[in-house]
């Protein structure tokens, strides 16, 4: 008995094999189909997809073989991997000095003929074989040999697809973990920052209200700047916290009367008269995540008011539906947005206007929050705008 040699790059070969995470996995139809086709084309009772591990040969798929694995030392496939030729063929094992006394030649499955095509990865490592076995001495013709080689390439295609899928899943898992860590850090940092900044803002309010008469103009100016800056930071931190909470919101859908929704929104903006906030729709009821929807509309209407330089603010809300979605349109007559900023306004902390109509600086959180909530509701959001005339935001909400 002549045991198979090991390739000179055995450790690297094993590392390549293990990268597919294929050993000891369950049977899969795609591999089983290839084994069946190989037996039919080559007219053999036995065939297998064999992977050569450190001390064993393991069958990913097999036809006509009882065991799931056998020792490497008596494996024909281990010889094929060691030689790594296009095809390794033994026409009559009983007369071949390398195999005549092998246990699987003298006993079950009584191998007389063997043909194996190595499974070569993209780096040239032989991982195993696609092989066919017969109990009678024989040969493969050119057509059968060509078919067996073609099928071995299909096995490698399946293995490569598996490895790429595993790599993608691992990358997505790492990305998810990094995003989770980043969100947790943002929340902790935001909470830690908010407390002292809120205290500073409160102290400056106290100084302004209680000691205004005792401060000279320069001191009042300094306290005013400090108050404005601290309130700006508090506003930014609150935006971060709201953005983080809204991204993880997962509220169930509820049926909502459109009339009630509009009245709730109108109640939040008492300074707008009936001409200032108008609803146009024929839809009576909607089934939505009410909290998320109200937050999106609140953000868009608030922006329409804050970034408006007209004496009379006008905001128009339209609602329509089809079989798969609701479509909301929020149109204002505000400052407008240059189209070069369209790709950026939905990203966190991206701001177009330095100040709103009240002289305050925004935090760039509102539209990114709106986009995140719309996407959680299975929809998309877009903007059309003309500088000096106003903006129109259109977003959809899935009915599914």
Mean pLDDT: 86
Q: Provide the gyration radius in Å.
A: 36 Å
Q: Biggest β-sheet: count, sense, barrel?
A: 6 strands, antiparallel
Q: How far do the termini sit from each other? A: 67 Å
Regions with pLDDT < 50 over 5+ consecutive residues? none
Kindly state the percentage of residues in helix.
40-55%
Structural class: alpha+beta
Q: What pattern of helices and strands is seen along the backbone? A: HHEEEHEHEEHHEHEEHEEHEE
Percent of sequence in beta strands = 15-25%
Shape: elongated
Please report the total strand number as a whole number. Answer: 13
Instruction: Going across the biggest sheet, name each strand in turn.
Output: 3-2-1-6-5-4
Instruction: Count every helix, treating DSSP H or I runs of 4 or more residues as helices.
Output: 9
Oligomer: single chain
Protein model, in words:
With 400 residues, the protein is of the alpha+beta class. It has helices spanning 10-18, 29-42, 76-83, 103-106, 142-210, 217-247, 258-268, 290-306, 366-376; strands at residues 46-52, 56-63, 69-71, 88-90, 113-120, 126-134, 254-257, 277-281, 285-288, 315-321, 325-332, 381-386, 390-398. The strands form three sheets. A six-stranded antiparallel sheet has the order 3-2-1-6-5-4, with helices on both faces. It has a five-stranded mixed sheet with strand order 8-10-11-13-12. It has a two-stranded antiparallel sheet with strand order 7-9. The mean pLDDT is 86.
């Amino acid at each position: 008995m002549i045991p198979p040699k090991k390739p000179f790059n055995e450790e690297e070969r094993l590392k390549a094999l293990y990268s597919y995470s294929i050993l000891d996995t369950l049977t899969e139809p795609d591999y089983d189909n290839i084994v069946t086709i190989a037996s039919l084309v080559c007219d053999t009772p036995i065939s297998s997809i064999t992977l050569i591990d450190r001390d064993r040969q393991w069958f990913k798929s097999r036809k006509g073989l009882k065991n799931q694995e056998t020792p490497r030392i008596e494996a024909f496939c281990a010889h094929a991997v060691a030689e790594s030729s296009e095809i390794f063929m033994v026409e009559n094992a009983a007369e071949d000095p390398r195999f005549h006394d092998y246990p699987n030649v003298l006993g079950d499955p009584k191998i007389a003929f063997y043909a194996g095509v190595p499974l070569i990865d993209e780096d040239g490592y032989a991982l195993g074989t696609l092989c066919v076995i017969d109990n009678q001495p024989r040969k493969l013709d050119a057509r059968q040999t060509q078919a067996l080689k073609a099928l071995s390439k299909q096995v490698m295609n399946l293995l490569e697809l598996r490895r790429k899928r595993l790599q993608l899943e691992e990358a997505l898992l790492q990305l998810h973990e990094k995003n989770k860590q980043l969100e947790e850090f943002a929340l902790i940092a935001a909470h830690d920052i908010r407390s002292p900044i809120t205290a500073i803002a409160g102290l400056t309010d106290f100084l302004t209200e209680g000691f205004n008469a005792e401060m000279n103009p320069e001191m009042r100016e300094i306290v005013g700047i400090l108050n404005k800056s601290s309130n700006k930071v508090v506003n930014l931190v609150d935006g971060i916290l709201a953005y983080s909470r809204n991204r993880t919101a997962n509220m169930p859908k509820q049926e909502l009367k459109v009339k009630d929704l509009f009245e709730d929104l109108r109640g939040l903006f008492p300074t707008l008269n009936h001409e200032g906030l108008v609803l146009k729709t024929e839809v009576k009821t909607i089934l939505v995540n009410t909290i998320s929807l109200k937050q999106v509309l609140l953000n868009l209407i608030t922006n329409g008011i804050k970034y408006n330089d007209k004496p009379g603010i006008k905001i128009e809300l339209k609602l329509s539906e089809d079989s798969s979605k609701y479509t909301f349109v929020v149109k204002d007559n505000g400052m407008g947005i240059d189209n070069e900023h369209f790709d950026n306004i939905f990203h966190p902390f991206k701001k177009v206007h330095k100040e709103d109509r009240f002289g305050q600086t925004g935090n760039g959180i509102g539209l990114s929050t709106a986009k995140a909530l719309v996407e959680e509701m299975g929809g998309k959001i877009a903007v059309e705008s003309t500088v000096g005339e106003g903006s129109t935001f259109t977003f959809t909400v899935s009915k599914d």
